[in-house]
Design brief:
Layout (H helix, E strand, L loop, with lengths): L13 H20 L10 H8 L5 H23 L5 H39 L4 E6 L4 E4 L1 H7 L3 H4 L4 H5 L2 E2 L14 E9 L5 E12 L5 E10 L1 H28 L1 H27 L5 H29 L6 E4 L1 H18 L3 E5 L7 E4 H19 L8 E10 L5 E8 L28 H11 L3 E6 L5 E8 L3 H11 L1
């Protein structure tokens, strides 16, 4: 049976062989020429055990054979002519010691080779794998870790892992204290390579504990997801760009409504200004009427300013900013912008808004974009209807998920043509549209926005005609409202 190659087996150095031969020679000399009535041959066991550090199975057996021959040769030289029981017993003790030491060395060598082969398998992994002790000192460092982080094994061993890699915990990752019952943890971390660049990893920890439950070793496996993160960032940027284009496109469709909404308070300001001037030019100026006219002017000026502020918010490119609001607030922002569109298409409006409405955490601009898109779609769906009333119904309320959670609900219903059963399952899919000039991105973006807020959006056809879209967002509890307000402050 040939000796299985092992990762641990390496050619011994000349110094190691020389020291071993010197040891054997010294023991042989003492055993042969020193007038000692003790089993000096027992010392050969030390040579056998020491040889296991740099010799393979065949080498250990060869050293054992040499030591046995040396013992027998020494016995033959000293006691060859008279076989007394004492020397024979000492020789047998020495031979037994050599044999036991050889068996122990072979067993330890086999166990070490097994562990070494298992460790060699870890070097085949593309993941970075290292082991650290209870004080965070690295005790094992595989080839994947060398490739990912840039530190050779010799430099990494003995270093504190968190200091070496400059570990950054993400807010959602938690820390070591959040290990589950299976002594495992998984999350995303940011590490620093040897060249100073940062790398994102999915990190998986497995902790080994002693009899008292104290951790003494942790194996950490890290998978590089840096490119994936960069791709996600690029996708997020592209999606933000697309959302902005869609908002601008929607605002273009609502140009008439926007112009009307802005011109109305401006015209009211002009009318009240002229009325106030007439009251002042009377022989007896009516200052009370002038005061009322000025108050109406101020009120309409604020209204015009609010409209422009909302339009600028919808038009500008900005990162989402979540604040505490209600779905009723969103409806109040949107209705003035679509009034002219409803008037031009002879669409009536029916509002049934729950008061007080449950608070939610969301981005006002994004949610307004969703509601505008659904309302405009509903108006267009009713634009060709002549045999029934064109009615847009917007209802808000709540629904219970379970005993501990509540959802804020907004329903937008029309009396239009309804949803074609052929596309009902793909209505929120990108580029799916029934409009000749539509991009098919409005409902897809709306679903992405709602789901990013932890909610859901669905669409159903009416019993007789029309369609109803339902938006559901998690409602905040009182303590969550206070925490969100404190964070915003």
């Amino acid at each position: 049976m040939s000796e299985r190659p092992s990762r641990m087996t390496s050619r011994p150095t000349g110094l190691q062989v020389a020291l071993m031969l010197v040891g054997v020679a010294i023991i042989f000399a003492i055993d042969t020429f020193a007038p000692l009535d003790i089993a000096i041959a027992v010392l050969y066991a030390v040579v056998v055990i020491a040889s296991a550090d740099f010799l393979g199975r065949r080498g250990i057996l060869l050293v054992c054979a040499v030591c046995v021959l040396q013992t027998l040769l020494s016995f033959a030289i000293v006691h060859g002519e008279s076989l007394q029981s004492g020397p024979v017993l000492r020789a047998l003790i020495g031979l037994c010691a050599i044999g036991i030491a050889t068996l122990a060395a072979l067993r330890n060598r086999k166990a070490a080779e097994s562990l070494s082969d298992q460790a060699a398998l870890l070097d085949l992994s593309h993941d970075a794998i290292f082991v650290r002790d209870a004080t965070d000192v690295i005790t094992y460092w595989n080839a994947g870790a060398e490739e990912l982080y840039g530190w050779p094994r010799k430099e990494a061993l003995g270093q504190k892992s968190h200091a070496l890699l400059k570990t950054k915990y993400l807010p959602s990752a938690g820390t070591m204290e959040q290990l589950d019952d299976s002594n495992r943890w998984q999350g995303e971390l940011v590490h620093t390579r040897r060249d100073g660049t940062e790398v994102w990893v999915v990190s998986r920890w497995a902790v080994q504990r002693d009899e008292r439950g104290r951790p003494f070793a942790t194996m950490e496996t890290n998978s590089d997801i840096t490119e994936q993160k960069h791709a996600e960032d690029a996708l997020h940027h592209a999606r933000s760009q697309l959302e902005h284009v869609t908002r601008i496109s929607t605002l273009g469709e609502l140009t008439a409504s926007i112009a009307h909404e802005v011109n109305q308070p401006l015209a009211a300001i002009l009318t009240n200004g002229e009325a106030g001037l007439r009251w002042l030019l009377r022989d007896k100026p009516n200052l009370e009427e002038v005061r009322r006219a000025l108050e109406r002017m101020i009120s309409n000026g604020r209204r015009a300013s609010e409209v422009i502020t909302r339009l600028r918010a919808l038009a500008r490119k900005s990162n989402p900013s979540h604040t505490v609001l209600t779905l009723n607030d969103i409806v109040a922002d949107v209705i003035p912008l679509v009034e002219r569109e409803m008037l031009n298409n002879d669409v009536g409006l029916r509002l049934d808004l729950q008061a007080p409405a449950p608070p939610v955490l969301g981005d006002r601009v994004q949610l307004a974009q969703v509601v505008i898109n659904l309302v405009v779609n509903a108006i267009h769906a009713m634009s060709q209807i002549d045999d029934r009333r064109r009615l847009l119904s917007i209802n808000s309320g709540t629904s219970l998920e379970d005993s501990n959670s509540q959802m804020a609900v907004l329903e937008i219903e029309d009396t239009g043509t309804g949803i074609d059963p052929k596309i009902a399952g793909d209505i929120f899919t990108a580029f799916q549209t029934t409009k000749a000039d539509g991009m098919g991105m409005g409902l897809s973006i709306s679903r992405t926005i709602v789901e990013s807020h932890g909610g859901s959006i669905s669409a159903t056809s009416g019993d007789r005609w029309g369609a109803m879209f339902r938006i559901r967002l998690p409602a905040l509890q009182q303590d969550e409202v206070a925490a969100a307000a404190q964070q915003a402050y």
